Amino acid sequence: MTTTTIAPEAGAASATTGADRPDFDAIAIGAGFAGIALIHYLREAGLSIRVFDRASDVGGTWAWNRYPGAATDSESYYYCLTFSKEILQEWKWTQRYPGRAETQAYMRYVVDKCDMMPHIQLNTEITEARFLADKGWWQVTTGTGESFTCKYFISGMGMISQPEIPALKGLDSFKGPIFHSSRWPEGLDYAGKRVGVIGAGATSVQMVPELAKTAADVTVFQRTPNYILPAMQRPMTPEWEKEIKDNYDAIIAKCRNHVFGMAFDSPVGRNVLDATPEERERIFEENWNGSFRWVFETFDDLLASPEANKLAGDFITSKMKARVNDPELAELLCPTYDDYPLFAKRPPLDHGYLEAFNRDNVHLVDIKKREPLVEVTETGVRTTAKDYDFDIIVLATGFKAYTGALEAFPIIGASGETLNEKWGTVSGSIMGVCVADFPNMFMVTGPQAPFANLPTSIEQNVIWITACIRKMEHEGHATFWPKAEAEAAWTKQTADIHAQTLMAQGDKVNSWMMGANRADKGARVLIYFGGANFYYDAMDQSAAAGFPELEFR
Length: 553
Ligand code: NAP
Known about the structure:
Elements: E1 24-29, H1 33-44, E2 49-52, H2 61-64, H3 85-90, H4 100-113, E3 120-121, E4 126-132, E5 137-142, E6 147-155, E7 178-180, E8 194-198, H5 202-214, E9 217-222, E10 229-230, H6 238-246, H7 248-256, H8 277-286, H9 293-297, H10 306-322, H11 327-333, E11 349-350, H12 353-356, E12 362-366, E13 373-376, E14 380-383, E15 387-389, E16 392-395, H13 404-407, E17 411-412, H14 419-422, E18 441-443, H15 454-475, E19 480-482, H16 484-499, H17 532-544, E20 550-552
Parallel strand pairs: 1-2, 1-6, 2-3, 4-17, 6-18, 7-16, 8-9, 8-16, 9-12, 10-11
Antiparallel strand pairs: 4-5, 5-6, 13-14, 14-15, 19-20
Helix pairs in contact: 1-15, 15-17
NADP nicotinamide-adenine-dinucleotide phosphate binds next to helix 5.
């Protein structure tokens, strides 16, 4: 890996004045959607910013997740940043859900068009970030030992970026390639090879049908089955594109005002429990058009009422079973309400995953009930029933969501405690953007932010961050200190809402949405489920009130 070095003054034209000033006003980590949005909004506010990323290209998630079949689960035309109306009109999406390469190409286009590259330093890992109490600055250190100072330190590292590698016995003994799904080796040739996939979440659901086309064999080791919704991919037609581009303001407003930040037409004003069985089936069927839309555009109570949730889950699994030829296999692939409610785990969208199991070269191994996984061997995977031989093993085992990237290296606050230490049992924050004892530090979509269409949440967070920095600079403050009582209040509110949702059952099925998939930390409340739209309102109210959660010094 080579380091891309840019001149120290590149991008620097500081809002901080005087001889004794930091290298940059702001330093951010992560050249994905967050880094790009930060460059746009902070540059507009007159700040100097440098964005570091250890990847060799911009793209964030879309630079890393190079596994076959990787694609967005949000529809293309609202899985994007909205600050440039010109770019929204110019960029042409080719299909409903763009593949990884198309989304990354879009991000590169934004970076080039807005001349952002001078602010981005790639191939550079940050290994420490430390608050310097005497100056009120942050100092970040790179993997090569260089260090840079800034007034504002911002994480744009992504909420699903730090891999969770399971502590499987024998993991190092396998002789062939074995890697986490988000670290897919460039140019790996899997054609004609026997591939073992450990894990059956959203990543595997996208990967397996693509692998199956040319691999000799694909064997999926499944612990927990998923409620799988169909993606129903389709190409972007000129008529559809025109309709979108003629209505972008309304689409942006829909995202801003939706509980999951999506351009969906909901709430719909009807509950499944009020419908007759005939109406229910008709509405479920009529809306079976792909995407998460089905959950939101059929009835309003599917995620609120256990009875409604069960009816929705049963409908989904009946559709799933109809696509799998072998009834016994179909049963193994489908969860029931007694296993867990719909959305206690994040449901995957599929592009032919279920049909892939109708092929002779795709196999499912139930490692929960039938034959638990014992170890990885030199030649493959051993279960309690038999040995499976592979040429390649993929660990599609998920991520340390929301906090993992922030805990992976020391981020040291005012008291000398790291974020990792602070978040021992509770991952508290103020609206997912600030943490008490970490002055002048922001997170984009940190813990206790909502789970939503990410570009929508990212842009809303960056708008709040920029407004806060504008106040700091306008009023001449050196530091802001997130208040402990504001953090306690947000943490309590988030936990109270979480406890009332069906998502609170995620801990019984290792859901990453509660950090229940991690070996190193216990399950906890990680997501604000009060509605992304109400969360964005709370951020706007905070900014309008002069950021009462922060103490300015
Ligand atoms: P995941 O949903 O957390 O799934 C991980 C899988 O690995 C699960 O099946 C899990 O089983 C299994 N697993 C973990 N540890 C294991 C162990 N020790 N032994 C056996 N199996 C083990 O991870 P993911 O599929 O990477 O997806 C994570 C999230 O990333 C998604 O929910 C989504 O939000 C995001 N994502 C998005 C897209 C997109 O938008 N296009 C695509 C992919 C991923 P259990 O369920 O039993 O724990």
